[in-house]
Amino acid sequence: MAGPTARRPPPRATDHLPLTHRITAAAATFEYDRPTLGRPQPPMNISLESPDQPDVIALIADLDAYQDALYPPESRHALDLASLKRDNVRFFVARDGEGRAVGCCAVVLGPDHGEIKRMYVRPECRGQGIAGGLLRAVEAASAEARCPRLMLETGPYQPEALGLYATFGYARRGPYAGYRDDPLSVFMEKSLA
After folding, report:
1. Tally of CB atoms within 10 A around 179
2. What ranges do the domains of the chain cover?
3. How far is CA 83 from the centre of its chain?
4. 92, β-bridge pairs
5. Pick the residue with more confidence: 82 or 39?
6. What is the phi-psi region of residue 37: left when phi exceeds 0, alpha when psi lies from -120 to 50, beta otherwise?
7. Residue 86 and residue 53: Cα distance in Å, rounded?
8. What does the pLDDT look like over 111-124, one tens digit per residue?
9. Which residues of 35-59 are buried (b: 16+ CB within 10 A; e: fewer)?
10. pLDDT in tens, 137-171
11. Cβ–Cβ contacts within 10 Å for residue 14, how many?
């Protein structure tokens, strides 16, 4: 037990988050509290991983098929596997208690903002707080990288996603970073500073 003269470590960018919502590059694992909704929840782990794994590639293929059914190709702005493996990308995977990939989300870190990409949770796993956990992980990693704000592009046919982002404090904004104004695009941002 530390005495009154013990020195505290310097504050980190994630110190404003509850202890269970912190991520560090060394640990690269994110554990979070999920809503129970009156029923027990299976264990869940969210961690930084390579997107170049068979089960994650299959998860991304499911995301692509889901979006293909909602939007035409010219209104889809997905990153390919090679882009997700770049040094400035942090790619998170949510795994259930049996180790199955059930969700993913990436952030592309730039000099003045980060962009959230490839957010997806398998339909049968929704409503368990996984998307919120992924978003918290991306926000914590972005804050740790001293990213001042996050932006994203999503679509109007995904009301659950729009609700999630609004709940987390993201506000609508106009197009950014080369995106064009498109009735099938919704742009949002959140300051992390």
Report:
1. 14
2. 23-145
3. 16
4. 48, 105
5. 82
6. left
7. 15
8. 999 999 999 999 99
9. eeeeeeeeebebbbbebeeeebeeb
10. 999 999 999 999 999 999 999 999 999 999 999 99
11. 19
Predicted confidence at residue 48, as pLDDT, reads 97
Kindly state the greatest CA–CA separation across the chain: 63
Q: If we measure between CA atoms, which residue out of 178, 175, 29 comes closest to residue 188?
A: 175
Among 156, 150, 153, smallest CA distance to 187 is for: 153
Query: d(Cα 69, Cα 105) in Å, to the nearest integer?
Result: 20
Sort 77 into a burial class: Cβ within 10 Å, 0-12 / 13-18 / 19+: middle
Alpha-carbon span 60 to 104, nearest angstrom: 8
Residue 12: count other Cβ atoms within 10 Å of its Cβ.
13
Token readout for 109 is 């870190």
| pTM metric for this prediction | 0.80
**pLDDT band with cut points at 50, 70 and 90 for residue 18:** very low
The model's confidence at residue 8, banded by pLDDT at 50, 70 and 90, is: very low
Question: 140 and 17 in contact (C-beta within 8 Å)?
Answer: yes
How far from chain centre, in Å, is Cα 169? 14
Report how far residue 179's alpha carbon sits from residue 162's, in angstroms, rounded to the nearest whole number: 18
What superfamily would CATH give domain 23-145?
Gcn5-related N-acetyltransferase (GNAT) (3.40.630.30)
